[in-house]
Specification:
- The protein is an alpha+beta fold and about 550 residues long.
- It has three domains: about 25-155, no CATH class; about 165-280, Beta Barrel (Butyryl-CoA Dehydrogenase, subunit A, domain 2), CATH 2.40.110.20; about 290-540, Butyryl-CoA Dehydrogenase, subunit A, domain 3 (Up-down Bundle).
- Helix content is about 50%, strand content about 15%.
- It contains 17 helices and eleven strands.
- The chain has helices at about 25-35, 40-50, 55-65, 85-95, 110-120, 125-140, 145-155, 285-320, 335-360, 365-400, 410-425, 430-440, 445-455, 460-475, 485-500, 505-515, 535-540, and strands at about 70, 80-85, 175, 195-200, 205-215, 220-230, 230-240, 250-255, 265-280, 325, 325-330.
- The strands form three sheets. Strands 3, 4, 5, 6, 7, 8 and 9 form a seven-stranded mixed beta sheet that branches. It has a two-stranded antiparallel ribbon with strand order 1-2.
- The protein starts with about 25 loop residues before the first helix and ends with a helix.
């Protein structure tokens, strides 16, 4: 008897086999505005490669086959190794080969930023060690001998996951270890101790004893860690394998069972007299970590912007194919409102993140230096804070299909689980808001912000009103309790100023009317009826 009950139809095909960069018009326009001389060919090649079915299969397999910790071998010897699925290594090879790790210190940060955003749309987990390798590279200059040996390897386009001495590898990766159980973001509460042991070719060697509560990517080749030295909290270079080929005394206690970020191994570790070398001066660990944190906070904003674009693309792709009530979902008036609203949020995030990356390309320019100082906490706070709400609404566009962990539609569930991480990692919302207040006290930050907004003045009344009000609000800020609202409004003002200069009038006008002018509800999909939904959606479509 034939038990076939029905033919499967009205189910969208997976979003695969397309060039992520060529179809991302907001990103291309942001690059044209911020780096008009940038060569786009590398990004076009990357967009094609990571949009392939093959690479998307690697992303799925790396997440459905998470890393496994092996503390001992079968004979009882301590090995402290994490085993990854081959697809994880394929993704790492692609990210390193694209120069998303240590190479931007000799090439434009904006180019690397765009590539980082694109790669996030493929798989975000592997970008944790990539981001840390990027952030620690300039900090290594605090130890000239270590920097001379390791910086060229960090800039290499070769990925080698083997545990062996740095000199025997074509390329290396690095991580960071800051957080301890009792301290969290308050790293001054760290109890890990560093005791001077000897001097050698890398300078002062110390023995580190203590722990790290969050020690991500423990299979990196080396780490920068914080420990209490005689002169206070200090920064140390701690290799996984010592120069003589022996393994350092890093004991992995367990891997974290996380909400998302499944392909990446995050661990708890103990140091049992582990060898490490001082980076910078004793007692100067906080300035060192702040320098690294600035770079990883940029990556948080870039990563969430990439995830937003991925979620939006999935929602647009699904609704363009799925029929309901006689026509595609994308043609239904309410769905148009939701999709257009998501498109506005995504483009605004992209514009702000790329603008921030531009600031890092011009460290000698005083205005750009101040913008880097101000916009880093602002972008990290606001973009990452919007991410989880964004992913939930995009998932709803797919209905039940978006909630499952299976097949092409299961990518949305992975995005949703990934979204909260960037808001938490490298300082949650309160830390960012407080950092903005500190940044506003540096130099003439208020004047720098006014200068940033000035080219967009006179284009929209709501933007003008907000720009007029910000200086007085900053000057009158008497309590930390309003710092998050200030971070939000600075972000919205800068986003609006960027969009009126880079985006079509339909996009810029709808953003200003909704986010600044009050013609908006408290949920996505509440834009005013006069919005040019069709133009906004057409610009955002991934095909």
């Amino acid at each position: 008897m034939d038990i076939t009950t029905h033919e499967v139809f009205n189910q969208p095909a997976p979003l695969a086999g397309y060039n992520l960069f060529e179809t991302n018009r907001p990103l291309r326009d942001a690059l044209k505005f911020n780096a008009p001389q940038l060569q786009l060919a590398p990004l076009e090649h990357l967009g094609e490669a990571i949009g392939s079915v093959e690479m998307q299969t690697h992303a799925r397999l790396a997440n459905t086959n998470p890393p496994v910790l092996h503390t001992h071998d079968r004979f009882g010897r301590r090995i402290d190794e994490v085993e990854f699925h081959p697809s994880y290594h394929a993704l790492m090879k692609a990210a390193v080969g694209a120069g998303l790790h240590g190479t931007p210190w000799g090439s434009p940060h904006v180019q690397r930023a765009a590539g980082f955003m694109l790669f996030t749309e493929l798989e975000a987990s592997v970008l944790c060690p990539i981001s840390m390798s990027y952030a620690v590279t300039p900090a290594l200059r605090g130890n000239a001998a270590v920097h001379a040996d390791w910086a060229p390897k960090l800039a290499s386009l070769w990925y080698d996951p083997a545990l062996k001495p740095w000199r025997d590898k074509p390329g290396v990766t690095m991580g960071m270890g800051m957080t301890e159980k009792q301290g969290g973001s308050d790293v001054r509460a760290n109890t890990t101790r560093a005791v001077r042991a000897a001097s050698d070719g890398w300078g002062e060697r110390y023995e580190i004893t203590g722990h790290k509560w969050f020690f991500s990517a423990p299979m990196c080749d080396a780490f920068l860690v914080l420990a209490q030295a005689p002169a206070g909290l200090s920064c140390f270079f701690l290799p996984r394998v010592l120069p003589d080929g022996s393994r350092n005394a890093i004991h992995i206690q367990r891997l974290k069972d996380k909400l998302g970020n499944k392909a990446n191994a995050s661990s708890e570790v103990e140091f049992h007299g582990a060898s490490a070398w001082l980076v910078g001066k004793e007692g100067r660990g906080i300035p060192q970590i702040l320098e690294m944190g600035t770079m990883t906070r940029l990556d948080c904003a870039l990563g969430t912007s990439g995830l937003m674009r991925q979620a939006l693309s999935l929602a647009l792709h699904h609704t363009a194919q799925r029929q309901a009530f006689g026509k595609p979902l994308i043609e239904q008036p309410l769905m148009k409102n939701v999709l257009a609203d998501l498109a506005l949020e995504s483009e605004a995030a992209t514009s702000l993140a790329i603008r921030l990356a531009r600031a890092f390309d011009h460290p000698q320019d005083e205005h750009e230096r101040l913008m880097a100082r101000l916009l880093t906490p602002v972008a990290k706070f606001w973009i990452c804070k919007r991410g989880s709400h964004f992913a939930q609404e995009a998932m709803e566009c797919l209905g039940g299909n978006g909630y499952v962990e299976e097949g092409g539609e299961g990518v949305m569930a992975r995005v949703y689980r990934e979204m909260p991480l960037n808001s938490i990692w490298e300082g949650a919302g309160n830390i960012m808001a407080l950092d903005l207040l500190r940044g506003l006290r540096k130099g003439d930050a208020v004047a720098a912000l006014a200068h940033e907004l000035a080219p967009a003045r006179g284009t929209d009344p709501a933007l003008d009103r907000l720009a007029d009000a910000l200086p007085a609000r900053i000057e009158a800020m008497a309590t930390e309790a309003e710092a998050r609202r200030l971070a939000q409004d600075v972000a919205l003002a800068v986003q609006a100023a960027l969009l009126v200069r880079t985006a079509p009038s339909a996009v810029a006008g709808a953003f200003c009317a909704s986010r600044l002018g009050g013609d908006w509800g408290h949920a996505f999909g509440t834009l005013g009826a006069g919005t040019d939904f069709d133009s906004i959606i057409a610009r955002a479509r991934p095909h």
